[in-house]
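explain this.
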Amino acid sequence: MPSTLTRVPAGHRPVGMVGWASALLALLLLAVVASLALGAREIALGQVWAALVDPVAGDNDHLVVRDLRVPRTLVGLVGGAALGVAGALMQGVTRNPIADPGLLGINSGASLAVLGAISLLGVTSVVGYLWFAFAGAALAAVVVYGAASLGLEGVTPVKLALVGAAVTATSTSVITVVLLADTQALDDYRFWQVGSLANRPLDVLTAVAPFVVVGLVLALAAGRVLDALALGDDVARGLGQDVVRGRLLVVLAVVLLCGSAVSMVGPIAFVGLAVPHLARAVVGLDHRRIVAVSALLGPVLLLGADVAGRLVVRPGELEAGLVVALVGAPVLLLVVRRSQAVAA
């Protein structure tokens, strides 16, 4: 029986993939260097390198790099990777090109939990928000998945999206009511809610890093399941995939990744929406490659937005969440228009 696979010339596909990987790694390195060197005060690359490998006590530039910009950059790397991959998983499991980590109600669940911690318990630090955000994200995902599993047909992409939208609307309404009644909570909550990499201590990163690692491993493992689900549930079952178990694996990965990212940087939604589109434009429809590329593009977008926010209003700065929305929306529109042109 003739093979249904088309043989690709030996030197073509590997060179292309190596070229894309090299370009993405170069972009990521550039974003990291810019995050360390640029800001309210520009620091020469030589000084940045000296601060990392041979710091001098009392040197202001070295203190800025090590105490402020290194934690900020590391949080951007981990948070951007988590948001990008979570968005790729969401769009794959729901077969919805405009899905993002907020579609399952995860962002709103985390936000409601953080607001509860602020308003009821008086928590005011980012480290204090951490576990409340994670717990709220996990609880929202459990509620959405449990409600979507009711009925004879079980969990479907449409039911996940509808129940997630309902949970998001309910949580948002409660948040609005609380903020209208508690102006002090509004002052503390709005800075976290807009999304930022500033003033995030390394304690936050070390606490959530294990969850991000497990989430990334699960995401890579779910790539084959998502490829099968993209063909429809019946075809996926015919290919030997356990559809229910596969969706549960994806939702678990999304909870770990999105809960970790939201707890660190706030509910920045646009990274998870735009990055998977860019990844598909680069590597096609293979979800394992999409996940891998999203893990690189997510930090590039988030760190780039953070650096831009520091430069445009110096010596002040705009939060990364605002810059991502302002800069990323036109990029997404261009990607969608290009995809439509290719399809035509």
Q: What stands out?
A: The chain has 14 helices and no strands. Residues 151 and 159 are 10 Å apart (CA to CA).
